[in-house]
Design goal:
The chain is 9% helix and 8% strand. It has 267 residues and is low in regular secondary structure. It has a two-stranded parallel ribbon. Strands 3-4 form a two-stranded parallel ribbon. A two-stranded parallel ribbon has the order 5-6.
Length: 267
Amino acid sequence: MSGKIIFISAIALAMSIGVGPSRAQSMLDMVDLSQPAFTKAEMTRAEIEAAIAKLPEGEKLDLFGKALNNLDLSGMDLRRVNFQAARLMGSNLSKANLEGVNLDSAWSLNSNWTGANLRSASLFGTQFVGAKLDGADMTGAHVAGDFSKASMKGAILDGADLSANEKNQSMGLMRGTFKSTVLDGASFKGANMRRVLIEYSSLNGADFTGASLTGGELGGSDFTGANVAGADFEGADVNSARIGAMKNADKAKNLDKVKNLDRAFRN
């Protein structure tokens, strides 16, 4: 399914539960999080486990748009589940295995994904605001969701695609969004972070080896101790960012071609 179709499906779902159409990553402002769609659960953990156990070989459990709020799904093997547009508000998926799972347009604010396996998962338009993803493994995942105010210490995003989806600009620019996010020690080796939004976030000791941050919005973020060997910063906006104590800055690409270098903290 294309990103455009996914986005339209999310809009339709949102409208059905009382959310007006708006830009994808500002839809949060239009949502009444007190309504049952964001507080109740249509299934229990036991029911989900039973449904997975009964699946014929090669088939998946379709939980598209399901309300699964505040459930404890920790440690479960959920690789055969479709969570597209599901609501997992406040749910616990710590150490769950979701490798390759579709979480496009899912809502999972203030949830716990500590140590979860999200390798090669699809997180297009997914809402993780305020979530805990410390140590989560998103290697090779499509990470075009909102992780603002989340804790992602030691998260692994090696080879992940966080780049802006230019084809959906008319419906809101979809990209990895990190506002006031804790990303200390996170790994972005070889990640595509073109036009990523990382504002006022902490990236102490993060690893950007070989990553592309071209055109990224990095204003106010702290890159102290971050390894930027081979990272491409061409056109990135570093207004008020702390970039003076980055590791291997001499091996980074196009640091002389960033925007607002004179406004960055370089000491």
